[in-house]
Amino acid sequence: MVFRSRRAQRWFQRINGSNHMLWFLAAVSFLETIIVPIPIELVLIPLMALNCDRIWRLAAVTTLGCLVAALVGYGVGMVLYQSVGIWFIETMGMQSGYQSYQAFFDQYGFVAILALGILPVPFQIAMITAGVSGYPIYLFVLAALLARGIRYYGLAWLILRFGRRAEELWRRHAVTASLAVAAVVIAVSLALQVLANRIL
Question: The pTM is what?
Fold first, then answer.
């Protein structure tokens, strides 16, 4: 990744050489999932490219940071929706997206969380909706873990496979690849759901 300013380059070099890099990455993942509208991939890709010997650990830390944030968002939806939840949705301008997603979630539940977790779109809607609806927390955690695990471990594989070209590939095909993966996951999940309903 090419940083445009010397200040940004120095900042990144300090992070990359720090003993607290993993904690930093976990914190950034947490903040990106909760509120910061900046893709973590902008930092994660160059860190992974420079630390291939620890690339799976970086993917794990990023996934866990997101999972902790998802649990916080779930808790906001479950306990504080009328105050913090509504304020957050309105402040972030997510009213229409939230209403549209509620109908999708009511029908598909687990699959809806998976889809939103894989796609490069704000995950807060899924977190709050699951909390408000009282969706089983273990299923929510499983869906969030699978979705973000696919996203970040997939990125790690991409970097190991293509090296420095991974950033360019991500920039060009992030949305298309996310849509394709989400479509496959949704199709498999729905097929399993139909099969389970027939068996039971």
Answer: 0.75
